[in-house]
Protein: Cytidylate kinase
Organism: Sphingomonas mollis
Amino acid sequence: MIIAVDGPAASGKGTIARALARHYAIPHLDTGLLYRAVAANVRAMDLDPAVEADAVAACDFDDAMLADPVLRDDATGQLASIVSAHPLVRASLLQRQKRFAYQPGGAVLDGRDIGTVIAPDADAKLFVRATPQIRARRRHAELQANGSTISFDRVLTDIRSRDLRDSGRAAAPLVQAVDAATLDTSFLSIEASVQRAIALVELGRTGAKD
Ligand SMILES: Nc1ncnc2c1ncn2[C@@H]1O[C@H](COP(=O)(O)OP(=O)(O)OP(=O)(O)O)[C@@H](O)[C@H]1O
Ligand SMILES: Nc1ccn([C@@H]2O[C@H](COP(=O)(O)O)[C@@H](O)[C@H]2O)c(=O)n1
């Protein structure tokens, strides 16, 4: 079974995707980490994220890099949303994601274009939402817990600019697949979001959509 989980920054899609992977005992890929790895390489190599050829030159990395906690910081997320707009960057990461999605036994992937581009024929598709304020509050708390001193206003501004860039780009923009079920986590606990996600996946598998 392939499960596609998409949504904007800090909507809770990773939390839900990890829980679905545990529930169905299938592997999970956080595809945002791939773009974050490219962003971290661009920074380390002192390249220009806005120049497509520079970003493409930073696309060579192995899976071990995805565990680096530096990928999770706010600045790397911003840079990731710049490099991810380049069609050639997306093309260079495409097969890696498709191979993961279509491995025997199935998989859960979360990102921005899983249900539309990576696995358009996924068995179940979720589009996870939450208001920008709530997403910023959660992300701010997470960053603070990890030792960051970033302000709430900065996190909210960054989330809004990332939303705009990710939705407005020409290549594989953040958009809800027509056959994806909406899951708004704004007023749901993590536990309630996960239970709702499992219920929606079960509905999706049987062909009915929210
Ligand atoms: N329903 C919820 N209630 C409260 N906190 C939540 C909920 N869902 C997720 N969180 C918390 O919000 C933060 C962001 O969640 P998560 O990392 O799953 O979002 P994401 O959409 O995968 O983010 P990104 O786009 O950066 O990968 C985390 O600290 C997570 O624990
Ligand atoms: N399928 C994807 C996943 C991510 N991106 C871009 O990467 C940025 C960071 O992603 P997070 O999920 O870790 O927040 C994100 O803002 C997107 O620009 C993408 O394009 N496609």
User: Anything to note?
Assistant: Residues 9, 31-32, 35-36, 77, 80-81, 84, 111-113, 162, 166 surround L45E5XJ5 (ligand 2) (CB under 6 Å). The chain has one domain: 2-201. The chain has nine helices and five strands.
